[in-house]
């Protein structure tokens, strides 16, 4: 349904409306400080879906003009996410009475002056869930666009064998030119991309946990373990560049997420 939005757009938007309304209703029921009505929640949900429809329509139109360019797809993905985030912030400000300037001033005071962050256990739990999603699926989409679109099954070079056919016999002892024929054989193995995605998830989660607990040396162990597992395939330059770019991007995102989580937890404890 999500992959073929142009075909199932109405079904996609209906699903999005129901899910948004359901989540906002749960927040209203679970938080007594939110003095909102169901009419406000319905208006907020409908507005988010309408903006979602406009953003998706614009994305589909623009993507058709520059199809097949991975870097352009990355820019389009980032802009799409920023527009959705801006939409949520606008809806929260106009319909849900969220005072963003007060939140930003409070966060600035926490960062600059070291004031403890007054957050409930539920808010901390929701924050950790959000960071979990960012470190896995969200960052996975970003890395996929960054390294380029690859097929579902990637052919990986498992080794190289060289056979030499050299002329031997009575004429071999003479100082006469000889002919050598070399045959190179590449042994390829089909690898399911799903396993690589799951490895990336665990990699970023482990890096994030290691940053939080201060075990920074463990990050080098993760990088070394991945390099050893792909040692034979490093002879292929294309794969080596793909592997290096994906690993560095994954490590960077894991480190950034770990720093953010460590900072928030240190201010709430």
TrEMBL record:
<feature type="transmembrane region" description="Helical">
    <location>
        <begin position="12"/>
        <end position="30"/>
    </location>
</feature>
<dbReference type="Pfam" id="PF11750">
    <property type="entry name" value="DUF3307"/>
</dbReference>
<feature type="transmembrane region" description="Helical">
    <location>
        <begin position="36"/>
        <end position="53"/>
    </location>
</feature>
<feature type="transmembrane region" description="Helical">
    <location>
        <begin position="243"/>
        <end position="265"/>
    </location>
</feature>
<keyword id="KW-1133">Transmembrane helix</keyword>
<feature type="transmembrane region" description="Helical">
    <location>
        <begin position="124"/>
        <end position="147"/>
    </location>
</feature>
<keyword id="KW-0812">Transmembrane</keyword>
<protein>
    <recommendedName>
        <fullName>DUF3307 domain-containing protein</fullName>
    </recommendedName>
</protein>
<dbReference type="InterPro" id="IPR021737">
    <property type="entry name" value="Phage_phiKZ_Orf197"/>
</dbReference>
<feature type="transmembrane region" description="Helical">
    <location>
        <begin position="205"/>
        <end position="223"/>
    </location>
</feature>
<keyword id="KW-0472">Membrane</keyword>
<feature type="transmembrane region" description="Helical">
    <location>
        <begin position="74"/>
        <end position="96"/>
    </location>
</feature>
């Amino acid at each position: 349904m999500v992959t073929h939005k142009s075909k199932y757009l109405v079904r996609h938007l209906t699903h999005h409306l129901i899910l948004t309304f359901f989540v906002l209703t749960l927040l209203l029921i679970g938080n007594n400080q939110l003095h909102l009505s169901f009419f406000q929640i319905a208006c907020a949900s409908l507005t988010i879906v309408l903006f979602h429809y406009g953003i998706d329509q614009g994305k589909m139109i623009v993507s058709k003009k520059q199809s097949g360019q991975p870097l352009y797809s990355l820019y389009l993905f980032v802009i799409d996410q920023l527009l959705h985030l801006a939409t949520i912030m606008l809806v929260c400000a106009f319909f849900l009475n969220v005072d963003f300037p007060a939140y930003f001033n409070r966060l600035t005071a926490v960062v600059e002056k070291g004031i403890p962050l007054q957050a409930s256990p539920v808010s901390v739990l929701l924050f950790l869930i959000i960071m979990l999603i960012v470190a896995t699926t969200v960052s996975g989409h970003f890395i996929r666009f960054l390294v380029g679109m690859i097929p579902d099954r990637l052919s990986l070079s498992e080794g190289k064998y060289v056979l030499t056919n050299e002329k031997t016999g009575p004429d071999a002892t003479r100082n006469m030119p000889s002919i050598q024929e070399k045959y190179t054989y590449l042994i390829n193995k089909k690898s399911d991309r799903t396993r690589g995605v799951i490895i990336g998830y665990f990699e970023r989660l482990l890096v994030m946990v290691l940053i939080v607990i201060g075990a920074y040396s463990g990050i080098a162990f993760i990088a070394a373990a991945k390099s050893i597992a792909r040692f034979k395939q490093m002879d292929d330059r294309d794969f080596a560049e793909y592997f290096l770019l994906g690993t560095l991007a994954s490590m960077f995102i894991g480190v950034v997420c770990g720093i953010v989580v460590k900072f928030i937890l240190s201010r709430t404890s």
